[in-house]
Amino acid sequence: MSEHRISASGSAEELLKKVRVVLVNTTHPGNIGGAARAMKNMGLSSLYLVAPKEYPADRAVWRAAGAVDVLDSAIVVDTLEEAIGDCGLVVGTSARGRRIPWPLFTPREFGEKAIHEAKTHDVAVVFGREDRGLTNDELHKCHYHVHIPSNPDYSALNLATAVQVLCYEVRMAMLTLAEGKEPHFDDWDVPPARHKDVEMYFEHLEETMTDLGFFTPENPRQTMTRMRRLYSRIRLDQMELNIMRGMLTAIQNFVYHTNKKLEKQQKEP
Ligand code: SAH
User: Fold this and answer.
1) 34 lines ligand 1 (CB under 6 A)
2) Position 3 confidence tier, pLDDT thresholds 50, 70, 90
3) What pLDDT is recorded for position 269?
4) Burial of 246 (C-beta count, 10 Å sphere; 0-12/13-18/19+)
5) Ligand 1 and 95: CB distance under 6 A
6) Considering only CA atoms, which of 48, 120, 43 is closest in space to residue 85?
7) Helix and strand element counts for the chain (H, E)
8) Looking at the DSSP assignment, which residues form a beta bridge with residue 124?
9) Whole-structure pTM value
10) Residue 240: its pLDDT value, please?
11) Three-state SS at 49
12) pLDDT digit string (tens) for 206-231?
């Protein structure tokens, strides 16, 4: 068994601290307060606010009721990257299907997976704007998507209500674990790569594919989205990521030296 794994025998409740709620660009401060309350009811405490429209705000405090401690410790950041960079599992929420479907969890599967993975690394669940949810770019930064199977004719829940449903599932999974009845997931010997390292990998991959002449940034089509989805399904571990980065560097060196040689040959009479 690898060292990075923390025994579940500690307090299962402690794991709830490792599951963070990320609210992106929230318009109504009341929803931020409502989300804080929903989290505290379920024992979660880590809240990240990405560029909230109006915050701090009295309305947030009012809706938080007795959960102002969650609000007080909320971390406000400018970008989604800052909120999820150090997480090993990132899950995006969506009220509707998207053009390129992504690996999908039910809320229950999400709760189980979040608690299981919280033993080894931080987990983020990301919520979108009240009026238009998360952008495709934001959703493509997530390993999985989760959809609350609501009425298809009226599928969007209020933001704080959606936070409530998913935090409830996380709590249920924690209680199941505390009873020693954890669902089985395959264990892995190396921790997953952190979000920010995978982002750097994508930059490197795009650069290498461009160097190779395989990818044209002026005409990207859906290539990088599809590559992101491929790697989301695989979820590189830290060692695999290092191997892949090393290979990309070797390819770039090879392309560079081959081009140099060609240039030289062309110049020679
Ligand atoms: N009109 C928006 C709805 C946004 S609702 C849209 O079409 O996307 C605000 C946020 O609440 C969503 O971004 C999502 O984070 C969450 N949410 C609402 N309903 C949901 C559902 N059925 N499943 C998962 N998340 C949901």
Assistant:
1) no
2) very low
3) 74
4) exposed
5) yes
6) 48
7) 10, 7
8) 20, 90
9) 0.93
10) 98
11) strand
12) 999 999 999 999 999 999 999 999 99
